[in-house]
Amino acid sequence: MVKKSSKKINSKPKKNIIYSKIPYEEAISTKRGILEIETSLLEIMRNIKSYKELRRRELMWKIKLKRNLGEIKEEISNILQEVPRTPGLKEIEREHHEKNQKHKSPIGMDIELELAEIQKKLEEMNKNQE
C-alpha cells in the first residue's frame, strides 16, 4: 500500500513580503480613513442604484404618457371626423382670433391706459343695463 503524503503542493510561489513599522496612532487613523472611504463608496453605490431605479421608472412613465397621448390624439381625431362640418368655420375662427388679439393688452402697457379701458368697459356695461 502506498501512503499519501500529507504535504500539499503549493502551486503559487511564495512572494517576498516587505513589512514596515508604523506608529499605532497612525495605523488607527489610516484604518479609520479606509473605513470612511469604504462607507462613502457604499453610499455612492446605493445612490447610483436608486438613481438607476428612478431613471427606469421615469422611462416607464414617459412611455405610458406617450402611449396615452397617442390614444388621446386618436380619439380626438375620431371625434372630429364624426362632428358635422359647418361652412365658413375657418373664417369664424379667424375673426374670433383677431377679436381676441385686439382685446389683449400689450406688454408694457401703461397702468393709466389699462384703467381707462376698464372704466370704458364699465360705462358700456352700465349703458347696456339701462
CA-atom Rg in angstroms:
40 Å
Instruction: Write the element-wise H/E pattern from the N-terminal end onward.
Output: HHH
Share of helical residues: over 70%
Unreliably modeled segments: none
Could you explain how this protein is built, in words?
This protein has helices spanning 24-82, 89-103, 111-129. It is elongated, with a radius of gyration of 40 Å. The model has no long low-confidence stretch (mean pLDDT 83). It starts with 23 loop residues before the first helix and ends with a helix. With 130 residues, the protein is mostly helical.
Q: Summarize this, please?
A:
The chain is mainly alpha-helical. It is 72% helix and 0% strand.
